[in-house]
Design brief:
By secondary structure, this protein is mainly α. The chain has a domain of 63 residues. The protein is 67% helix and 0% strand.
Length: 123
């Protein structure tokens, strides 16, 4: 007697589902609100740049949990503005040529100009 894979799958599927019933979930009032996490509070008040490297992972986890919680409660929570603020800060900083980047750029430009001038004078 050969048992077809489809039949075996159906038997295993039915047997594993026996005895499992969905229990009513606890009320939302009993669950802690992940949106009140200290990491999310810090990111909202001080910005994403204030988070330490080990807090960034926790921020993304809490952000995901907060979105799920808000969806279950029926609220609309948007933490995307934090990313937009961070991008705008980086854009403003990148617009200005300052610090190590300007030093490096100046050295490269002087080196290129010197090599062109010395090549032109030698030929």
């Amino acid at each position: 007697m050969v048992i077809r894979p489809v039949t075996l799958f159906c038997i295993v599927f039915c047997l594993t589902g026996v005895g499992y019933s969905q229990t009513p979930s606890s009320s939302l009032e009993d669950e802690p609100n992940p949106c009140q996490s200290p990491v999310l509070q810090k990111a909202q008040t001080q910005g994403l740049k204030s988070l330490k490297p080990d807090e960034i992972v926790e921020y993304w986890i809490r952000n995901w949990q907060c979105k799920r919680y808000a969806k279950r409660v029926g609220q609309d929570i948007n933490l995307g503005y934090l990313q937009k603020q961070k991008q705008e800060e980086y854009y403003r900083e990148a617009k200005e040529l300052s610090g190590l980047g300007s030093c490096f750029t100046t050295v490269i430009i002087i080196t290129i100009l010197y090599s062109f001038v010395s090549f032109a004078l030698l030929n």
